[in-house]
Amino acid sequence: MGRRTIWANDDVIELSKQFVAATDEVWRLQNGDDPECKYFREFAEQGHYRGEGSTRQGTYICTPSGILLGSMNSHNADSVLKMMQVALKKYELLEPKQRLLAADAKILPDHRWESSYQPDGLDLTMIARDIPESCNPKDSAEVAWNQDRIWFSKDETQKILRGDIENIQRGDKLELAPVFVARLARFSVIDTVRGQTSYFGEDEVAGSTVHATVTAIRDNRVHLRLQGQTVAESPTSRGRALPHGMHTKLLGTAIYDRGRGQFSSFELVAIGERQGRTVLNGRHRQSDKSDVGFVVRLTPRDAPLIAPTFLFAYDADWVQHPE
């Protein structure tokens, strides 16, 4: 919602050029014990919540030294813009030594999930959105969307296509590796369009499958047509998850470079139906079933480094967990 109401506003975008903008998951910052989290709480506790409530969500403006200049939790672009203008005037009145972080300050984090990024692996971006029945431009579902990442290591990437890759021919059909199918169905093609949700257990996506048909081989590049389905069912309540499910059909294309052992192109579309809800995924006022759509593509090389939401639940030895 913030992307649509605040950070798409032309005046906010223009004024933001005078700030260093950053975004992060607030749960870790408000609960963690490492220096980065403590640094955040030092100015956040002076902000709009001032010790009240269980969250520190919102927009904060502070100096590198940690002086709070303004904060609020609002989706009103005019209100946020005014706060930014006031904060900038406060900043201009500060002495240079008040603005800057002390040279000996210790605010670097002990652990961040981004550190597990695999530069030689496969980095995919997933976009999820509702497919409204009305096709009415004024329907909020037209603009509701979310995004996430899917990561694979180099070794996992090279094993996604199961079979004798060096000797395959046009028309051959290959099953994609369980690690790819499970990561897609459990953690990515899930109902995050309107909010946070829970991932599916390994036994809850058993009906999911993806295969690739070789359509051409050119210059050691294998051109593929992707097809399959995700079938995810969580029939019981656990934690913040109520009974819910996701069924989709998949169609896409990819190009695998055998010489580099990497995908040079990847695009997958999933269309299907969600059922039920979880506590925080924004479906409490929605019907029990509705259509959803997903697009999975290669992440651009210049995109910000953002870890997958459920990276902590990947069954992978390359994922670095906090000590």
Q: Which key phrases capture this entry?
A:
323 residues, alpha+beta, 2 domains, eight-stranded antiparallel β-sheet, two-stranded antiparallel sheet, 8 helices, 10 strands, 20% helix, globular
Question: What does this entry show, briefly?
Answer:
This protein has about 325 residues and is α+β, with helices and mostly antiparallel strands.
Q: What fraction strand?
A: 25-35%
Provide the gyration radius in Å: 22 Å
Residue stretches low in confidence (pLDDT < 50, at least 5 long) are none
* String of helices and strands: HHHHEEHHEEHEHEEEEE
Count every beta strand, where a strand is a DSSP E run of 2 or more residues.
10
Q: So what's the overall shape?
A: globular
What average pLDDT do the residues reach? 92
What does this molecule look like?
This protein has 323 residues and is an alpha+beta fold. The chain has two domains: 2-99, no CATH class; 117-313, no CATH class. 20% of the residues lie in helices and 30% in strands. The chain has eight helices and ten strands. The strands form two sheets. Strands 4-3-10-9-8-7-6-5 form an eight-stranded antiparallel sheet. It has a two-stranded antiparallel sheet with strand order 1-2. A hairpin with a 6-residue loop joins strand 7 (221-234) and strand 8. Helix 2 (10-16) packs parallel to helix 5. The longest helix is centred in the N-terminal third of the chain and has 17 residues, at 77-93. It starts with a helix and ends in a 25-residue tail after the last strand.
